[in-house]
From TrEMBL:
This is chitinase. Residues 277-569 form the GH18 domain. SMART domains: ChtBD3, FN3, Glyco_18. One of its GO terms (cellular component) is extracellular region. It comes from the Bacteria. Gene3D superfamilies: Carbohydrate-binding module superfamily 5/12 (2.10.10.20), Glycosidases (3.20.20.80), Immunoglobulins (2.60.40.10). It comes from Microbispora catharanthi. It is an enzyme of class 3 (hydrolase). GO terms for molecular function: carbohydrate binding; chitin binding; endochitinase activity.
Length: 570
């Protein structure tokens, strides 16, 4: 976040959540090698592993992104690895085998095939209806919909690799749609409509075709059978996570399964004593151009005060903290004893004080089981020494989700259910559930308090609707928050992290009113920009700001605007 600004160019390389884009024209059936690497181009999505040619040299994408002018491969080593000169790999993938029809309806044909057997980095499969390219998918199944009833269609499939090479066509198969009967179409993707300590309620879009009803599955186990498009799954444990799919059925059989949805029952313990909607701010344990403050000068508007930062020692995973001598001098001799007393004073008036670990310049590494234990032991010792209520994970130089999850669970065992666990990932860290930060958040969801993603120093990023949004707008905040909200985190675990005003960040500084508009959009679907979420999130947790000190430097505009607004949310 924080003491120094990270390169906006690196942060702007957002991960795409969609599938592989359309590739070059396919090879003929007799061809086994198609093309050299395609030329790099702006405004193009590149998946990790894609290879391109630029100015006679070859490059491999090492971080998925949508390219922009100025992001030419030699200019952005964070996105591209140079491979040297040459024409690129021209070996096409092997032909997919076993193409087969797995079902038909009056308006659709379902297909499946075997994955390519060679190891050349297949990134997707092109499905052809006759000579027409219908789609490119990353898996080995596809349902072709919107077809005429009682009509015969012929299909082939081709494999495509990261270099853009396309295999010869598979053996063709034919299928005839039903004349108005047959299994229904695939239901629309389900959504979690609500949850309690013991139940999860779902809703979905109706299937096409003749439908008798719907069956809800958890894995292969049927959990409900209904005639409408809603269902409530009961007899669940508190704070447990479940994944469901839906199939439509009639006398001819079941449709293909819908996309999966994940829901979590309530009753989680993620740090006690906090309001439903909270404002979090960082307090500087160092001197910079912002205003130096004693902890006692922090306004009561801040529900959580994150002390920045705990730092690494020479022991892997171990964290240390002490009052910064430079800050102590700048404040006229602020002592450790005074600082500890101020921590307790804030807690007595209802505020929580936690230790933030890392920061932009921090290098805490938890990459082994031993380092996880060292982290838990050292942070717990610091909590006992200073009276802190929890920990904030603000590691901007990478983390290992597996071992950090172990560390946080060990810390929770020591500190108890009142432990506050927060995270402050950069925007790029939460663009995909495959990112380590996102994986960490989901793996400790049952004990996680909130994720305060940093919506700044980011450039342009992809929203959950696959559109690119620039930082500093309502759309940027709402469309990126949607990724977390629709991919496993509860609304009460998602908050918006913004700079407190000019000077606090190199990019993404917004007025406090823009922050409240974004929260209104997420909670009520009002005050939105061009992006409007598909549903409301009234439990959205609130906001975070970097930092309390910068808020002071800007006449407390952030906290004086955002905190009263939070009280108006549902």
């Amino acid at each position: 976040m924080k003491k120094r600004l990270l390169s906006a160019l690196l942060l702007a390389s957002g991960l795409c959540l969609a599938g592989v884009g359309a590739g070059p024209a396919p090879a003929s059936a007799a061809s086994s090698a198609v093309l050299a690497y395609a030329a790099w181009a702006p405004n193009t999505y590149y998946a990790t592993g894609t290879r391109v040619t630029y100015n006679g040299a070859d490059y491999e994408c090492i971080q998925a992104h949508t390219s922009l002018t100025g992001w030419e491969p030699p200019n952005v080593p964070a996105l591209w690895k140079a491979l040297g000169s040459g024409g690129g790999d021209t070996t096409a993938p092997s032909v997919p085998a076993g193409l087969r029809v797995t079902g038909t309806t009056s308006s659709g044909v379902s297909l499946a095939w075997n994955a390519s057997t060679d190891d050349v980095g297949v990134t997707g499969y092109q499905v052809y209806r006759g000579s027409q390219l219908v789609t490119t998918v990353t898996g080995t199944t596809y349902t072709d919909g919107g077809l005429a009833s009682g009509t015969t269609y012929s299909y082939t499939v081709r494999a495509r690799d990261a270099a853009g090479n396309v295999s010869a066509a598979s053996t063709a198969v034919s299928a005839t749609t039903g004349a108005g009967t047959g299994t229904p179409g695939q239901p629309g993707a389900p959504m979690v409509a609500g949850s309690t300590d013991t139940s999860i309620s779902l809703s979905w879009a109706a299937s096409s075709g003749t439908v008798t009803g719907y069956r809800v599955y958890e894995g292969t186990t049927q959990r409900a059978q209904v005639t409408g498009t809603t269902a409530t799954i009961g007899s669940l444990g508190a704070c447990t996570t479940h994944a469901y799919t839906v199939r439509a059925y009639n006398s001819a059989g079941e449709s293909a399964a819908s996309a999966a949805v994940t829901g979590t029952t309530t009753g989680c313990s993620s740090g006690g004593g906090l309001p439903k909607h909270i404002l979090t701010g960082y307090w500087h344990n160092f001197v910079n151009p912002a205003v130096e403050l004693k902890l006692s000068q922090v306004p009561q508007d801040y529900d959580v005060v994150a002390i920045a930062f705990g730092e690494a020692t020479t022991t892997p995973g171990q964290v240390t903290f002490a009052l910064d001598p430079g800050l102590s001098t700048a404040l006229g001799g602020y002592t450790e004893a005074q600082f500890k007393a101020d921590v307790q004073a804030l807690r007595q008036r209802g505020q929580k004080v936690i230790l933030s670990v890392g920061g932009e310049a921090g290098h805490v590494q938890v990459a082994s089981s031993g380092a996880a234990t060292a982290f838990a032991n050292s942070v717990y010792s610091i909590m006992q020494t200073y009276g802190f209520d929890g920990v904030d994970i603000d590691l901007e130089n990478g983390l290992n989700a597996t071992y950090m999850a172990q560390a946080l669970r060990e810390l929770r065992t020591k500190a108890g259910s009142g432990l506050i666990i927060m995270m402050a990932p950069q925007t790029i860290d939460m663009q995909s559930t495959g990112m380590e930060y996102f994986k960490l958040a989901l793996s400790v969801k049952d004990i996680l308090t909130v994720v305060d993603m940093q919506y700044y120093n980011s450039g342009a990023m992809l929203g959950c609707d696959q559109k690119v949004y620039g930082q500093g707008s309502v759309d940027f905040m709402t469309a990126l928050a949607c990724i977390q909200l629709e991919n496993g985190l509860r609304p009460d675990q998602v908050a918006l992290g913004l700079p407190a005003g000019p000077g606090a960040a190199g990019g993404g500084v917004v007025s406090p009113g823009t922050v409240t508009s974004a929260l209104n959009c997420l909670a009520r679907r009002t005050n939105c920009g061009s992006f409007v979420p598909s549903r409301t999130y009234p439990d959205i947790r609130g906001a975070m700001t970097w930092s309390i000190n910068w808020d002071a430097a800007n006449n407390w505009n952030f906290s004086r605007t955002v905190k009263p607004f939070l009280a108006t949310l549902p």
